[in-house]
Amino acid sequence: MYAGMDSTYSGMIHAMEKAEYKDVEYYQMHAKSKNNDLYKAICNLNYDDFYLQYGKKAIPVKDEGERRFVKEKYNDLTPIIVEEKIYKYIASSGAFRTSSKARVKTQVTPYSICKTFERKHKNIMSKKMAAAFSNQILELSREWKMR
């Protein structure tokens, strides 16, 4: 069905997917070659929509675990959980691959400082102190910001 279409149809398919038309519900699954221009254009449209809505400091993530990981590792980025279909489109866009979180340098965060401290000193802490540090200080440090 989509084989004869070129990238000029990308806007229409993208709009129909956003409006949840049944006609394009399974487009992503049926895109035989993810190297075709139509698929690439739809990926780029999803990438642009995401950053227009959430801003350049936002980063799409698949689930809560990945959201926590990004929040801990990258102090200045805001992880946004998106549905799997949208995540696949954004992750497949050329712009995302050149600016993905994998290429962002790991920053020192309050959480990473506390985690390093815990790793270095856990063997000299009592069990009660180690548990309190992990459950209270370490958890609170996820929300702290560097100045």
Automatic annotation (TrEMBL):
It comes from marine sediment metagenome. This is Uncharacterized protein.
